[in-house]
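User: I've been going back and forth on whether these two constructs are worth ordering. Before I decide, could you fold them both?

Assistant: Sure. I'll take them in the order you sent them. The first construct and its structure tokens:
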Amino acid sequence: MRLEIGAFHVKDIKFGDRTGYDKGVLTVNKEELLKVVREDEHITAADLRIVRPGDEVILCPVKEALEMRCKVSGGHGIFPGVLSEMEIAGSGRTHCLQGCSLLVVGAHAGGFQDGLIAMGGEYQHHTIFGDMPNLVLVADTDEEFERREQQKKNRALRWAGMRLAEYVGQCVRDLQPENIEVYDLPAIPDRSDAVKALPGVLYVLQPQTQMEAMGYNTLIYGWDGNHILPTLMHPNELLDGCMVSGSFMPSSSKISTYEFAVNPMLKRLYAEHGRTINFLGVLMSTLNVKMDEKVRCVKMAGQIAVSLGAKGAVVVEEGYGNPDVDYTAMLVELERLGIKTVGLSDECTGRDGASQPLVSMNPATDALVTTGNVSQMYEFPKMEVIGELEALARDGNSGGWEGCINPDGSFVMENNGMFCANHISGYSRRTCADF
């Protein structure tokens, strides 16, 4: 399967009379784009803003992040099974506006799964989005049925973001990319003897799929991830948009739709293919609530890995707490089967730093990479707010609480509520020092 990513490197975004791209500048026509947003009658108010690195601006509550792109050949849309017909992603050419993102922010109501982004100040670099220009959709909906729910599906806003990401991406459909990234991974039996002699490695992904009620979990080709069993997938499928981030779990531990498709861990495994490893593909797994579901999942994943002849695996967990049981169980099962593993996740040590960082621990899990501590505390000065800062305290954001906002507009929050800050996809730039 061969995928070409045509890259257009965005250095700035501005409003203008027409939507287009030229020499590093993405120009968008605000009214034209808002018509796309308002195609959903549940959107009651909407505006577009542009934020840039260094702006003294807070975005809250952030619902989603997406890369603006379009399908040029090999498919009909950038979200197959969601906005377009079901077809396998990962082949042909896709044009991408790289180095920027589309952020979706609630004008008012937030929830447990929503987050905060700082575009300037001390915490600007805690998310990748603080270091890039962003087009920001700020909108409200009539979804009153979940206004006071801690968990929100955010459906109207998330779908509006997807429509907008695809619409803007169309402006580079007929342009010549500045460079083309090629991802060409042949079928496993068709690889050369030299490649086959290298250790086979799998990327085992455990996206957030814990909600038994539909509408909250990660989508795979539009299918709720709670309803799948471990499945072997081609990495190109992820890089070409087969996954849509869910609307559940603490924000800093989320993998955004942007990161599912622009995935540095996948790209690093690709870069090592044929050099140091034989990259076997993506073993798509799940995170479950009940113990029998957890056991079934890891046992089936282990069988697939053994059948493929895997010698190594990178296991990635989206979340913490209850999902730690699935995470460590997967690591232990693969190690039991003779497959060397590295685990990639964040951790939760509690505000006092004294809690066990993973709910479940095992001596076999001796190669773990942490991307951050969800319990770390941050103190923010007063800054301009796009959205509504009160949502942090009022609406059950996982990093805020009643009283965390001071009368002068400064506030305190846990890393829990920093949007996708731990970047389980592999973007994290945090380091650990041993004193």
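The second construct, handled the same way:
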Amino acid sequence: MADILVVDDDPVSLTIVTKILEKEGNTVTGCSNARAAIEALTFHEFDLLVTDLIMPDHDGFEVIQAARNLRSGLRIIVLSGIDERVPPELTMQALTKLGVARMVRKPIKPAVLASEVLAVLIGG
């Protein structure tokens, strides 16, 4: 179906997201840090980037910026454990300015992630 790059510093979250997306028939490349993700973006054309925001050293914002510089049309979904007291609309307004299509809050619900990925891949 799609070639997807997943970036998350939490190995459990990375494994869960990878398995959910592979179960849907996608090819998934997983990276546990921003540096590896930026390298992958440099050498491979992905259909979709799914990235965590909060990571040590380099964060998801740097991955998004690199994606915009290297692959301007790449579709992006953000995974976020941002405090639920922050209204999702405010967070999404800020992310939309960076070219992010959707945000999926952690903890990840498989059906929600699969649905959001499909919506973004078919142009929603």
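Notes on the second construct follow. The chain has a mean pLDDT of 91. The chain has one domain: 3-121.
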